């Protein structure tokens, strides 16, 4: 189907190129107006297509940046939580160890050992 349409369009365009002088003689203002209109439409279509593509690319980049920054923020938050948990565990174990050492410490025995 598309091949047939392509062949027909090619024949029409080729015929227009070959007989452009005759077309200009038969329809001098109409052909110029049609060509100018087609050029304008093609130019407008190109600029609209370019704007649409640029907008979609910008939107895609913004989405990627937002997802990436959210992912990084979540990872940093998770690592921060893990570090906080480890610090709390270390603090608690240190306090327990120090309390145990202080409760087991016999000051009198320590003084006696120094002077022996």
Give the helices and strands, then pairings.
Blueprint: H1 2-18, H2 20-26, H3 28-104, H4 107-114
Model description:
There is one protein chain. This protein has 116 residues and is mainly alpha-helical. The chain has one domain (2-114). The chain is built from 4 helices and no strands. It has helices spanning 2-18, 20-26, 28-104, 107-114. It is rod-shaped.
Stretches with pLDDT under 50, minimum 5 residues: none
Element order: H for helix, E for strand: HHHH
Mean pLDDT: 82
> Into how many domains do the coordinates divide?
1
Instruction: Please give the alpha-carbon distance between the first and last residues.
Output: 110 Å
The structure class reads mainly alpha
The largest pleated sheet is described as:
none
Please report the total strand number as a whole number: 0
Shape: rod-shaped
**What is the CA-based Rg, rounded?**
42 Å
Helix content: over 70%
Total DSSP helices? 4
Question: What is the percentage of strand-forming residues?
Answer: under 5%
Quaternary state, please? single chain
